[in-house]
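Subject: sequence -> structure tokens, single chain

Hey, anyone have a minute? Need the predicted structure for the following. Not urgent.
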Amino acid sequence: MIVLAAVLLVLIAIVAIVVLSSGGEPIALGLPFGAELQTNLAVVFVTALVLGAVIVVALGLLRIGLRRDLRHRREVNELKRRAGEKDDPELEEGQPSDSAQAAETSRRRDTDKHS
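Reply:
Had a minute. Here:
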């Protein structure tokens, strides 16, 4: 996967250099309601490049937020479970329950993945 990503980055760099070096050609962009925008290929390319980067950053932030929310919900559910188990006379004090041990193991795995 790393090699594929590196190859794609090199290809993108080559395309960017070619487009920006020969981007002086004027083009007309048709807009809604019959309007037309006169520009050149380099401006369109750079605009698309910037918008693509913004989309990638936004998706990354969305992914981070969703993971954080999921982790928070799991922690809240585990705390609720632990609070309910305190009332359970079968559990000895100081002994973690099976679900608490499973939650701790899951938390450690998530932490190891993000490290």
